[in-house]
Amino acid sequence: MAPAKDKAAAKDKDKAADTVAGVVAGESGKVKDVAARVGVTVSFTKYQNGGGNVLCRDLMGPVHWVYPSGGNKMTINLTVAVASGKGGTGKTTVSVNLACAAVAAGYKAAYLDSDVEEPNGHLFLKPRISRRYPVSVPVPVIDAEKCIACSSCGEICQYSAILCINKNVLTFEKMCHGCGGCQLACPVAAIAEKGRKIGIVEEGVAGEISFVHGKLNIGEAMSTPLIKAVRSAGPDNSLRIVDAPPGTSCPVITAIKGVDFVILVTEPTPFGLNDLGLALDMIKELGIPHAVVVNRSNPYNSLARDFCREREVKLLAEIPDDRRIAEAYSRGELAFSAAPAYRGVFEDLLISIEKEARR
Ligand code: SF4
Ligand code: SF4
């Protein structure tokens, strides 16, 4: 039996929470729902009223929730990337359905498609685009009048994007990373810069989900500046879901750098698990908290479960290999709406991510 002192403390805590919840006009139920859903004890010890918002601070972790006093969406400051070692494992399926689960749970959510070579989240979310802008990288322009053909620019360039041959300076714009090194190295300021367009960013809304994606120009090799532009777009104070490019090279590292949590999506096949292993090595090197989601899972196939046990990585969810999900996907529909039986899978995944990200 709990000592009387503990009981009194618990009573005081409840009273404090109720007091603050009462201040959040009509939102006390939501506050308690969220606390119960993520399975934590929420201690509302601080609140302030500014700009019409009431800020509730949970001292158990770094995540802050803000309830607009108008009773709209609840905000959370959390960025989750969905990645995979190889393409076609179901990254986009997980990302878009997770965004839907977040909105259904009352969160302000954003979907950021950073798979800029092949963005496909828009096929499922069908956003209304309201803003479109180009993204460029700076490339060198030589002033032949000033150039003294010293070759310093070619010597400093690590990408062979500028060469001085026979007193002429040649530039190879598609190989240029826009680092500005040649401009700094030129002793006579003969190098200026111009922008070279590599793609566009589009922003809009899909229902209540904020939507951002990047579209890389066809034949363009330089995707990282566009991925950075996608990452820096979209609203703050939301659950930001980054649909990362596949693989383990520069584009995916750019997409997941600085996120709070990474979900690695795999399929339970030897090929899928081999690439999951490579992705796990990369994530561990970056030191980002992570877990695995198995797509097209089959209760009789334990390959992925065994793999996660051996590599000591948490398996957060298994999405069944169900024809209804595949058919919804092929029609460009969300499993969340087309196969309601699987809503719970994504809702539970959302709760697990919140818990893991707060550790
Ligand atoms: S900006 Fe950097 S990458 Fe581009 S040509 Fe100059 S040194 Fe090379
Ligand atoms: S560093 Fe400047 S001066 Fe030298 S070759 Fe390059 S552009 Fe010409």
Task: Outline the structure in words.
The protein has a nine-stranded mixed β-sheet, with helices on both faces. A four-stranded antiparallel β-sheet has the order 1-2-3-4, covered by helices on one side. It has three domains: 14-68, no CATH class; 75-135 and 203-357, P-loop containing nucleotide triphosphate hydrolases (Rossmann fold); 137-197, Alpha-Beta Plaits (2-Layer Sandwich), CATH 3.30.70. The radius of gyration is 25 Å and the shape is elongated. Strand 3 and strand 4 form a beta hairpin. Mean pLDDT is 82; it is low at 13-28 and 40-71. The protein is α/β, with parallel strands linked by helices and 359 residues long. Helices cover 36% and strands 28% of the residues. One iron/sulfur cluster binds at residues 140, 156-157, 159, 161-162, 176-182.
